[in-house]
Amino acid sequence: MSATHVGPLTFALVEPAKPIKAALALDRASVIAAISASGIKGRGGAGFPTGVKWNLAATAKDEHKFVVCNADEGEPGTFKDRVILTEYADLVIDGMTIGGYAIGAATGIIYLRGEYTYLRRQLEAILAKRREDGLLGKDVLGKKGFDFDIVIRMGSGAYICGEETALIESLEGYRGEPRNRPPYPVDTGFQGHATVVNNVETLAWIACIVSKGADWFKGVGTAKSTGLKLFSVSGDCTRPGVYEFPMGITVTELLKEVGGENAKAVQIGGASGHCVPASEFGRTIAYEDIPTGGSIIVFGPGRDMLHVAKCFTEFFVEESCGQCTPCRSGNLTLLEGIESLQRGQCSMKYLQELCSLGETMQLASKCGLGQSSAVAFLSIVKHFPDELMGRGETKLAGRA
Amino acid sequence: MASTTGSGVDLSRVPLSQRGHTINVQETEGTIGGLITVEIDGQPVKVPLGTTILEAAKRVGIRIPTLCYHEDLCVAGVCRICVVEVEGQRTLQASCAFPITAPMKVFTHTRKVRQARRHIIDLLLANHYGECYTCSRNNNCQLQALAKEYGVDFFRFGHPETPTYAEDRSSHSVFRDMNKCVLCRRCIRTCIDFQEVGVLEVEGRSAESKVVTFMDKPLAEVVCINCGQCINRCPTGALRANDPTDDVWAAIDDPTKHVVIQTAPSPRAGIGECFGLEPGQPLTFEMNTALRLCGFDKVFDTNFTADLTIIEEGTELILRLYKALVQGDKNIALPQFTSCSPGWVKYIEHFYPEYLPNLSSAKSPQQMFGAVIKTFYAKQMNIDPKDVVTVALMPCSAKKFECNRPEMCDSGYKDIDYGLTTRELAKMISETGIDLPKLPKSDFDDPFGTATGSGVIFGATGGVMEAALRTVIEMVCGIKVEDIFAHADIIPVRGFEGVKYAELPITAVGPVPDILKHLVPNWDWLKGAVVKVAVAHGTANAKKVMDDIKRGGKFSECHFIEFMACPGGCIGGGGQPIPTSPAIRAARAKAIYSEDAAYEIRKSHENPAVLKLYGEFLTDGPCGHISHKLLHTQYTPRGKYIE
Description:
The complex is a heterodimer. Chain A is of the alpha/beta class.
């Protein structure tokens, strides 16, 4: 697949390796200051300010620090990292190298999604070329004392390994399960060392920010959600694909661009995101309103929203690591509830119980997966009550 | 990266995620002197930085319910029952896993917290098959207790009506019923991190998660050492010991059978806990009365054969040293390892089979007792050994495996027929309606009722070593132990430190005692020597010592090393009352040492009944032919690779 764009993506306009040169011309604190000033927040979806994260790692007292690129793109409906890694991997590596310089790490690790194994050879070739060009290895670009190299580690297909602490567990060779936080990876990460874990897209934007300046980035988007963002658009629209939009775009604007004007709902943020009904299409896609890691799934008028809820819940029943009770059993209980709704056998009282269970899952689960896995179900219950109750075998059979 | 579990067990192999973490926090106004004031339910409490919310709450008397948390184990934070609300945090936090690093306000029973806990209990019950009536943990189950505390009066999210998994009854020691498992993973953390054996792990994800052995094989076919530490830490009835009480009752009820029971010291120190007493109150003599009331024909003291073990094992050590040092035999394996802990024996068979020659060939006290009962005693009493049923009351689940080892039939019969745990005997006593703590005291039966303090302390880590040293010092040096150690308390080998090391210089030697005269001519060759000994309890510590020996480190130069599979020694055994904790084990150990101090005879070689046994039965002395046939055994190199 190639990126779908009317004009070129910003990434196409930044010359690889130049960002590193720009960064190495600054001292470390200034690099972090620039990242902080840009206001960029994590593009993986959680939206943690990258400058803050880097600053924590930079100030951690640790001789061995790590920069990890989270390339375990697994959120349903997300495929923008694949495009970045295919076409603009150099920028990602630039971003990692800048990160290594900024926090004082000598090693970068790309944790590559198992399904992206086919990209590995290409990435290794880029790394090899960069070593030849002095962009990786000892004294990067002649900068005395800055040694940095990158290795690739493969994931094995578990969604949960996109969660940064589960990713680190997986890197260490353990079962991919989230750790207790605190401590956070910036303090106690890979092999106990200070580690920053950044999304593929975040790192590519870092390269752009260093190259084009924090003000350029801050000039786009909203006050709290600065800059541009890539979106993976799929579902019931005429022009699915990868788009670059400024943060703060409204759902309506986005739908117009992708040919999804007649949608009845849009799932923003993948399976763990919000299901936004047509009545709320005026809302903005931004950390302060509807956050997303980039997944946009458009649902046309003919979609059965209960079926949508079921699909997402099935996904979590499959992908929960099974560690904590609310997520392990909660998702299954929700799924069984949805199935009883489909059969027309769920009482209003039990539906309320399920919603309150959903709240518990959001509050009491150990990691972001469990905390967000009930969100889609809850927003569908809230916005599409008419599609939930009064269903029966006959109606279901008719649909099939 | 310092981490403690309160037991001093090294956690170096524990996944980072499960270790305690050092929190580096800058001193700010709120955190002066490493102390920090937090508010829990409105109550201020000052705690050291890094203290968890759970611990901080305990300090002000606020109880937060827990399930996956266990004092002995590294933190998991997976059951989520202990969640609390922290002001400013969007989500609830697991109080067992949340280190306090800044002033904060915590609320432990808000609406959100109560709702979450209730839901978590409901979710656990929705996957917990089985009725409380038919459960070995009825009335001692943390899940049941939580359901009661939170007023569960119906199964909100359902309840399984059929079992999902087949029970695993393959092991002689540990039964597994995964239908009752709540996936708290305490057994896994016990096996991997606490004991470093590593038989159990989670397989599958999400609702398919399951605690499994390697390739989900039956427990009897994997490297399980039967220590039963997992049983002691299971909050529900998913793990329990193989219970032979029905068979024991049947033997008691059979008029043609002569049923004798031997009782080890640790159950006496622990059984009171099953009858509502605080830990650390021994009921040795009340228990004797109870056993007779239950219908056992004779009640003997395992300490008798503990003393016998000391003589045999001590003689073996002397012989090894003599052959190695005087006769220059290079094939003699040193250091000699103790062999009375069957968990440790199976551990070394699996993990260090190349060191089996170092393992003393002396049987454990339990097995020596069986062999003596079915030979010497049966003859003396004029009973056909086939009609003698030997029962052993042990703090141990591995003893059940030990008595079923095929080689343990040197008497011509199964040396020990049944191994009972402390918990199982408590159940038998309850069945009779006896109120154990209120019973009158009574003594052990002769001829094996005479014991010494040395036998008693076998129950605590370091006890075997102390008993051995008391005997060796007196036999070799010709002096009184009391001349070196006040009250004959050999303090350097006592206590709960994971690995202990002591050196004992032999400055003077005495005459060779009669009992050993046929083996060594004199002690001159030991004069000026320094006896080096070590003690390790818990297989995680045993592993440390073994790996050091492999590397040729300090412990490879020891002469004698005591190993116990269970943390704390037998008092922390897998057959002891549940729950267990460092404090409970310390209380039991205290009880044992106080019993030792009360004995008139405190040294194994002074036990008149033991000396009589050598005089009348084991006539060719310690490590002689008769004792070799009955009291010694051999081992099976098992390796850790499973077919």
